[in-house]
Each structure stands twice: as C-alpha cells, then as structure tokens.
C-alpha cells in the first residue's frame, strides 16, 4: 500500500503484506502502527476498495467512475455524486501514473512470478525502488519516464468504483466520512451549476 502526492512521489509505502490481506486491514495497520499520519484538516483520496471515512475519501459506489466513461457526449453529469466521482477519478489518476513510472523504471517489480529473492529482500527492494523513484523526481529533471506519464490519464489498473470493501471501518467513522464526502460533492455541484448557468446566459 502506498500514498502518493500530486507531484508523483511516494509519501508513504507499506511493503511486505500478503496479497490476500484486505486493503482496509493494511490501512488500519498503517494508521495505528505503521506511521501513516494524515495532517489535520486533510484527507487522502482512496479507491473503492476502502471504506469511506473523514481522512480517507472513497468514490460513491453504484455511480460511474471510470475516466473514459465521462468523455465525449457522456460528459453531462447526472447529479452531484456523478460529478464527485469524475473529479475524484481525475485527481486519483496520479496514483496510476506514479506506479506506471515506478514499474517502467524497475521491471523487477512487475516480474511474472514475483521478485526472485527471499521475503525480507523483496521488501527491501520495493522500498529501495520507491526511494530511488522519489530521488529521481526531486533531483533529476527532466526525466523521460516522468515526462511520459506526467500529463496522461493511464487506464492501467484503473478502479471502476465497484470494488468490494473487505474489512470494516467504525460506524462513527463511516457516518462522519459520509458527511465530509457529501459536503464536498454538494459544493462541487453548486459550483458546476453556477458555471453552467453563466454559460447559458453568455450564449
């Protein structure tokens, strides 16, 4: 599990969990024991495999989420949840682009059959690759891989917004998370409606 900044660097990496572990279980460990800290008043955008809480905002389930589904004649939004999911997908796409750079630079991470080293060495390799990735991003400009992935919208491993949430968040966290998400969605919708009204008046 990793947290990614909008500059395409890793701000947190948890390596070593089994693939069968639920996203929610890894996140719970990261927050309680693994050193992941969410700054006060901030939140992370997460995919639909996580529960929606005040500090980890997930997309609305049951509404379209795939970026490609909003293109062309499908750009008109059906409501505030639909708009929220589009904005969420656009912002969270930086995760896919960041991992695209990482795996393109270090093919061993996506090697068929896994990394051919003992478990402890595997964990160290993952962490080392992420550290080198960050170093290159901050020091080595320009970089052809970052330039290749920086402005695109990759479709690799894209969340379609319908993943099953494995593991539960506390009820009070879910309620508070829904309040935060609904407030954001409502504000986005209000701003969108104002833009649409101004455009209609201009026409």
TrEMBL record:
InterPro entries linked: HARBI1-like, HARBI1_dom
Query: Keyword Metal-binding: yes or no?
Result: yes
Say where the protein is mainly found.
nucleus
Q: Which Pfam families match?
A: DDE_Tnp_4
**Annotated localization:** Nucleus
The family line of this record is: Belongs to the HARBI1 family.
Task: Please report the name of this protein according to its UniProt entry.
Answer: DDE Tnp4 domain-containing protein
